[in-house]
Amino acid sequence: MTAQFKATKRVSRIRYAIRDVIEFAKKLEKTGRQITYLNIGDPVKFDFDTPEFVKTALFDAVRAGENWYGTSEGDPELREAICKKEKQVNNVDISPDDVIVTTGVSEAIFMIMAALLEEDDEILVPGPTYPPYSSYANFFQGRSIAYRTIEEEGWRPDIEDLRRKISSKTKGITIINPNNPCGAVYDRKTVRAIVDLAAENNLVILSDEIYDRIVYEEEFVSTAPIAKDYPVIGLNGFSKTYLATGWRLGYLYFYDPEGRMEQLKESVKKESRIRLCTNTPIQRAGIAALNGPQDHIKAMVEKLRRRRDYAWKRLNDIEGITCTKPHGAFYVFPKVHEIGQRWKTDMDFVLDVLEKTGVLFVHGSGFCETYGTGHFRGVFLPQIEVLEEAFNRLEEFMNKK
Ligand SMILES: Cc1ncc(COP(=O)(O)O)c(C=O)c1O
Q1: Which residue, judged by its Cα, is nearest atom 1 of ligand 1?
Q2: Which fold would CATH assign to domain 9-49+296-399?
Q3: How far is the CA of 136 from the centre of ligand 1 (A)?
Q4: pLDDT confidence of 17, banded at 50, 70, 90?
């Protein structure tokens, strides 16, 4: 090979297991195999669609010529609508000046990590976690430290473990509730305990609530109202609730009753200016989404609940697999008991399943080397017939020793 121009070490620290595994599936697809993709949390790839009135709002905005560069922090009307939604749905008191509209929650994570972490600073993330929290922390030369969540207790955060992992370098604690990949929904007491720990140690709280409206039996509680006077950075978006994953619309807010996050807020605003703005017409559609009828959410959750029940039962019926019941979001995170014996690693397991069954999952270690290893993540987004076929194949695969 000719001499290569060098890329930075910083980028080599980025991992995104959910998409990294696709390469293997694409290779198989090239040989004529049909692949069932159960790796990505994208409802729009299945039988869920962006509500018609939201699509219409986007077409209308484009036709009305709202195709200019917008305000960096986001459309003022959208920020207003976000505050209204956060108050009505989650009882969060914020004003438009506290909100920054982003190109998905993904960009919000990037911006916050950039503003929060100096070299070697630590951020606590749940183990397992949604990968950008650890990848972006590492990208900015910080360190993500996984705190244990307890599988046997529905993946509840282990508060004592969290306490032990706070060091002089810790800058913040991340909460992902409802959780991806585990589907846990944290109760008030758990959120309260995390907030108390953060307050005792003067740490910034990041609360990812992108699945706030996708819960089955447990009640979702937002972090900010529990924190009362203590500040919280909230993250949320339109991808899941409004079935618009490809539109890339999200937001972050600074809930800051005592004005302790002014510097952070100004820094993130500065970051928002350098990338000019997020998609202008899509923000207009976002206003329509928040202010319009919300009926599709109930229908979506009911449809998902049936699929969750089916997936959870089928997985637990397979010998060698156990699965905790997800109470929110649309993921299962089962444990495979023979990883370490029949398969050396969970990645080997996922690749073996892919090759023998054509079903693509994500290896658990991609979500956390310590607490995710030995598991895999799947989505229960497809219709029952598709899930049935995938689990039949998985079952047959597991039984064939
Ligand atoms: C917990 C969590 N946060 C953020 C995101 C990314 O969301 P967005 O599409 O808004 O970038 C996801 C996507 O799966 C997620 O599961």
Answers
A1: 180
A2: Aspartate Aminotransferase, domain 1 (3.90.1150)
A3: 14
A4: confident
